[in-house]
What we know:
Layout: H1 11-23, H2 40-51, H3 59-79, H4 86-89, H5 92-109, H6 123-136, H7 158-177, H8 180-205, H9 210-214, H10 218-228, H11 245-250, H12 259-263, H13 277-285
Helix pairs in contact: 3-8, 5-8, 7-8, 8-10, 10-13
Amino acid sequence: MPSPGRQGYSRVGQEKDDLIERQQGCHMDKENFFSGQMTEKQRAFREEYKRGIAKWYSGWGHLLSIYLPGLAVIAFCVDNIHAPTLAEIAILGPILIFYNFNEWWIHKNAMHHPVKKLGGALMPVYHRHVHQHHQYFTSKRMTYDTNREWRIVLFPPYALLIFLVATVPFALIIGYVWSANAGFLVMLSTPFYYLNYETFHLCCHVKENWFVRNCPLINTIRRHHAAHHSQPIMMERNMNLTYPITDWYMGTSDLNRGLFGHLFNGYDQRYIKDEFQNDQGADLRQSV
């Protein structure tokens, strides 16, 4: 059975795609950063996907169904933290590093490789990400047009609930063996990092504007993620979606820079590793 968006896609469509590839050899105008011309295949897939979005779906409703519960948990935890010590606050450091590694690991191993264990529970995650998200967005066309397309950007609302439930036992243990403050800090770190992830990912797919181009860290992950959406490297490179710390440490980044340079690289393409210049680099230069 043909995959969504391929119906009616023929040799003529492929020839048009090849022509687009050849014609996009120059820099895009400033208003078109990351919004280059789509191939016929990508356009067909997008149209097919959008027809499948339920009429009742609301992008803002989807966003609020994630942010309101997340912010509520954060507010509840903050309200129950009283005069935390420096040692208690310091627990956030290793937790955020752990979450950064976890984000990298899940993206690399569950979202880009089929995991058939656990009764195939993670297979829908793989299919949604590789066969839908990466078809919908390419390094040349990373942006969406309306908030109904947040359906292909944001995780389902229940994902945050799963992470919160998984955090509860650890927060209770830390709260019991150390202090209540430490337990609440552990608990609030999950929605904080998760909302950070969703915010940065959404910023990676909005149309070019002054804020995303100039805001430190966001402009870095925007280029980092656009490079990840280039087909030649998408299965192995640039797996972080918040801060490219683990990509730097594990050597899976497309950049040849230190940690500070990775975090504040912005749109700079001078440090792309030589071995990626001819594939991902060529794609991205047409958009940045």
